[in-house]
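(Structure overview)
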Amino acid sequence: MLTEPTSAADDKIRCDACPVMCYIKPGAAGACDRYANHNGELVRVDPHIVLERTVSHGGRLVPFQAGGDWDGKLVHEPDVFVTAIGAGTTYPDYKPAPFIVSSEIDGVDMVTVVTEGIFSYCGVKVKIDTDRYLGPETATVRAQGEAIGHVTTSEYGSQMLSLGGVHHLTGGSKKEGRVTCDALMDLSNCKPVELTIDGGATVVVQAGYPPIVNGVPEERMRVGCGSATIGMFAKQWHGKVDEVVVVDDHITGVLSEHQAGKLLDIPDTGIKMKGRRSTPGRYFQVAEPGTGWGGTGISDPLSVLGPFDPTKARPGMAMLMVSTTGEHAAYYELDEALRPVERPMPAELRLSVERIQENCEPALCTVLFMGGAGGSLRAGVTDNPVRLTRSVKDALTRVTSGGAPVYVWPGGGITFMVDVTRLPAGAFGYVPTPALVAPIEFTLRLSDYAALGGHMDHVRPLASLKDSTETRIMPSLRSTGEPRP
């Protein structure tokens, strides 16, 4: 039994694990499907997870320093780690964390405090590897027609979304809050979610898998912007073609004008580009953004060109046009009127396009869960919550989520982010307030835990968990270094 019911009526028991306070009849579960009435007792439906570290794939380990017995680990960690998955919560805030577990690591007495936090203040940051235009910055992102977030500033070869947050969970209609909660939980549990962006695309996002943009699976992210592509491959084009244009929504590159081309003594070709010229060989805004060449809206690359300068161009001059992923490429020669005419691409240029493709990394979706550990979490660790915050900032306390490492933001509070692919399956849940439920663990020396006012009367040894029927020991998924399916 994890917690006592606060009241009973007609054989029902009242769950106090979240603010909904469900009455649960015998043999049934609450609205969250996480707690149930089992013979009059309130129990956690899912078992508590303890991770057992494993060496993945049986790979041979090579020591990096001579002398002594080395077990192959770069960082010394306990062989068994207590996670908060399936542990239960501290609601209504005054209760100690469900499991406060002591263990000895390298002769040092440690304690791990675990809680399934109820996060109203939470969301996910989504990185989508694609050059395809998903939508304008600040555009609303929707799931099932409901607003759940917005497009934020793009990064190098990736589009970024910010989803969730208390505004969408609690600040709109009941349906908006429910849909937001469902989408966040599915994304955090590595399930596919279809999103639509106002004024933009429809995209299917699943952590660890390629995005599907307007029904088309993305294969690769760009090797670089148009200018960077010129710099990387200029030598491979030297002597094989007179001009190269790398079409890119952000920075389109032109070989003959680029500094790389100048250093290779590539002569001026008289090419004229549309868009806004930046530094030599770099052009902004050559076309509107879209899902065509280089993240622009064009299907005909010649539409970004003006007429060639007849004082510098010559008939027969060869030109390669290529996108930043190598997905689109075409070869042209100028006719007598100095107009580009498409020709079959020479094999040596085809090899350079394939080299661009080879240097593009596989396109994936990355989902980072982000939450703020507030009063209930901290009070479950210590009766003076600010001491826990200070201990985290002073690096005396390590924060993890489901055993996975997290990034804790500087500044006030305990605001953390975690890569959801590094947690065991099904680590995230929900309560219908609505809010997400996510595991969080605090690990520190036992002496430091006592000093910050920890709940010392509730500390229990690790051995007490291993034989418990409410606990399941499973291998760590983090040892493989691969996203789970």
Q: What stands out?
A: DSSP finds nine helices and 33 strands in the chain. The CA atoms of residues 161 and 305 lie 33 Å apart. The chain has a mean pLDDT of 88.
